[in-house]
Design a protein that fits this description.
single chain; alpha+beta; 9-stranded mixed sheet; 8-stranded mixed sheet; globular
């Protein structure tokens, strides 16, 4: 049996669902197909952190690279995005704790973000957070959005129409396709797109969840972070390139948890549960968002650790491209073809 839709989104992570929501809001008929396996977007603290992420990128590039304007613009879209789709948005700011607090405070201010220091703590009101599981559930449940279980195995163009074949042999026809599959797609794609998707590096991430309420806002430090969540707190996170297995690494995880707890002055061990996901990353650390080359095929892939922060910007960029609108200010930085 073959079904048809105007726009087919392959993948129900934060980038796929956010793009689907934006297109739906603009009046398009949208169908999302997802296999329902472990979703890396749910294995996250949901931090919308332009300040601390800009600082991390700037420090990681030895001061040669400043993505503050792009990340700041992405964060600025979250208020309207959360209101439009009834997503949780917590605006209590974020905190840094560590012996380098004075340096962190000075660098945040130099990068253009508000920051206040008290002792070994630095607080910025610029960083917010959402609740990933709740947000994904609400995006999936938007009225008018069709979400189907399934795994797409191939994409092929036939004139002005795309056909997506599922592993059960059924097909889906669409005028436009948004590929939002994450790090490992297993898709048979047209060669130009296959080459772009091959650029995506898998990065395994592991977080711990405890039912203890540990902090009132996200607290970062040299060892990692602790953030509030609906069930207690999230502690994370590891980033392990080129790993795609989902079995928790207890030794590495427990070392991370002890170090993060020490940052907030907690010496006792806590019972935790582990979540493991695999996200994608490009070589420049920014996602692929926009036209992939063949007419009607668009990408929303590989946000590395900033999927939640960048989701509204990616969604708008992809939707604008799909509709043939003028490219936004940051579209060239996200253009998938920059990596060709």
């Amino acid at each position: 049996m073959s079904l048809s839709t105007e726009v087919l989104v392959i993948g129900a992570g934060v980038l796929g669902l956010s793009t689907a929501a934006e297109l739906l809001r603009r009046g398009h008929e949208v169908t999302v197909v997802d296999p329902g396996t472990v979703n890396a977007s749910a294995v996250a603290a949901g931090m919308i952190a332009p300040a601390f992420e800009t600082l991390a990128d700037w420090r990681g590039s030895d001061g040669r690279l400043d993505r503050g304007d792009l990340l700041r613009a992405a964060g600025a879209q979250w208020s309207a995005f959360a209101t439009a789709f009834d997503l949780p948005l917590h605006r209590e700011g974020a905190e840094w704790r560590g012996a380098d607090a004075e340096t962190v405070c000075s660098q945040l201010r130099w990068l253009g973000f508000p920051a206040e220091r008290t002792g070994d703590s630095v607080v910025t009101p610029a960083d917010w957070r959402t609740e990933p599981v709740t947000a994904l559930m609400r995006l999936r449940s938007l009225p008018g959005l069709t979400v189907l279980p399934g795994r797409i195995r191939s994409l092929a163009a036939d004139g002005a129409r795309w056909t997506a074949m599922q592993e059960d042999g059924s097909g889906l026809a669409a005028k436009a396709v948004v590929l939002a599959t994450g790090a490992v797609s297993g898709l048979d794609l047209p060669p130009p797109v296959a080459r772009l998707v091959a650029e995506v590096q898998p990065i395994r991430g592991q977080i711990a969840v405890t039912d203890r309420h540990l902090v009132d806002r996200a607290v970062r430090g040299p060892s990692g972070y602790i953030a509030p969540c609906a069930s207690g707190a999230v502690i994370g996170a590891t980033m392990e390139p080129d790993r795609t297995d989902l079995e928790p690494d207890l030794h590495r995880g427990e070392t991370l948890v002890r170090a993060c707890l020490a940052q907030i002055g907690v010496a006792e061990s806590l019972p935790v549960t582990w979540r493991v996901g695999v996200r994608g990353a490009t070589r420049d650390g920014l996602p692929m968002a926009g036209a992939a080359g063949p007419a009607g095929l668009h990408l929303a892939l590989a946000p590395r650790r900033n999927g939640w922060l960048l989701a509204p910007l990616v969604a708008r960029t992809v939707a604008d491209g799909l509709e043939g609108r003028a490219a936004g200010l940051y579209a060239p930085a996200l253009d998938p073809r920059r990596l060709a």
